[in-house]
Amino acid sequence: MWRTLSATSQVAAPVHNLFTPIVFSVYIFKVRPQMIFTFSFVILHTLVAKVFEALRSKSQGECRIIYCSENYIIVDKEPDLKINSNNKNERTLQTFLKSKCPAVAKKKLFHEYYFPHRLDYPTSGIICIPKNEKACRAVAKAFSERDTKKYYIAIVRGIFSADLVDINLPIGDDAREVAIHKMCTDNVVFCRNPRNAQTVITVLDEGIFANYPATKILCRIITGRRHQIRVHCSHLGHTIVGDYTYSNRKDVQPPRMYLHCIRLIVPVTIEKIDVSTSDAFTQVKFWTKEKMVQDLSSAYNTIDQYINSL
């Protein structure tokens, strides 16, 4: 049943940006009036795209605090949201925390809150925010020493040929896509600075997404590389549904990328963390489950037993 492969995170557009194409086009019209119809179509297309982008995140729900203690705040982050930004007017996880937990903000920190780990912009799910420096050091150490357990669910294109997959393949920078921080596996010539990366995947459900075969999976990452699950799934030929970057900019119809951090375990002495959310993809438009391979509880056991056997 087990198959092993080895190596031998857009923000809603500000309203004033929506009219940039119009200003540019008015200037063009004065020079080349014969192109008015063509540019009018471009303007309309651009405006529709930008308005959709501006409204998209509102349809995905908002962040919510799911756990709060003396040492930690645990947030269920919405998709398509940055952790922080140098633009103070941009809505981010930082601004959400500022509105809900202003007393926890630290003026000495550039972004006011401790962020010892992160989620990609399009990824939703659990993120841990320490309330003090001691708690932050404990979590940061746990992540650096790989003592944490981080689980994700995803809906991916195609049907997996095995119920469990262990992909152990280094990930590095894609030298062709520096501007967007795209990553790649190290079996291609354009990979730069690869680092070890391991992801264990087990199948939850098989089904259909928008008339195409798809699989819902549970993943546990052993390492924590940028875009790790997205890159490994793409390498397997099972790109995550809605992943614009790793579908070579083709998967644009889904309202979001279907990757969600569903559980986080951090066994620190100051306070053990074991927090989970419900399955974010049980009632997803366009997704139809046709076969349940295993429930979520069984999937956790499947992954943990396999990793413990290594």
What share of the residues lie within helices?
A: 10-25%
Task: Kindly report how far apart the N and C termini lie.
Answer: 15 Å
Major β-sheet, in short? Answer: 11 strands, mixed
Low-confidence stretches: 6-31, 44-59
Mean pLDDT: 86
What is the helix tally? 6
Shape: globular
- The proportion of residues in beta strands is 25-35%
Oligomerization: single chain
- Supply the helix-strand structural class: alpha+beta
The ordered string of helix (H) and strand (E) elements is EHHEEHEHEEEEEEEHEEEH
InterPro entries: PsdUridine_synth_cat_dom_sf, PsdUridine_synth_RsuA/RluA, RluA_PseudoU_synthase
Keywords: Membrane, Transmembrane, Transmembrane helix
Organism: Dendroctonus ponderosae
Family: Belongs to the pseudouridine synthase RluA family.
Question: Topology, pairings included?
Answer:
Elements: E1 2-6, H1 20-31, H2 36-56, E2 64-68, E3 72-77, H3 93-100, E4 124-130, H4 133-144, E5 149-157, E6 164-168, E7 171-174, E8 183-185, E9 191-195, E10 198-209, E11 212-221, H5 228-235, E12 259-267, E13 272-276, E14 287-292, H6 296-308
Parallel strand pairs: 1-6, 4-12
Antiparallel strand pairs: 2-3, 3-4, 5-11, 5-12, 6-10, 7-8, 7-9, 10-11, 10-14, 12-13
What does this structure look like?
This protein is an alpha+beta fold and 310 residues long. It contains six helices and 14 strands. The strands form two sheets. Strands 1, 2, 3, 4, 5, 6, 10, 11, 12, 13 and 14 form an eleven-stranded mixed sheet that branches. A three-stranded antiparallel sheet has the order 8-7-9. Helix 1 packs antiparallel against helix 2. The longest helix is centred in the first third of the chain and has 21 residues. Keywords: Membrane, Transmembrane, Transmembrane helix. Belongs to the pseudouridine synthase RluA family. One of its GO terms (biological process) is enzyme-directed rRNA pseudouridine synthesis.
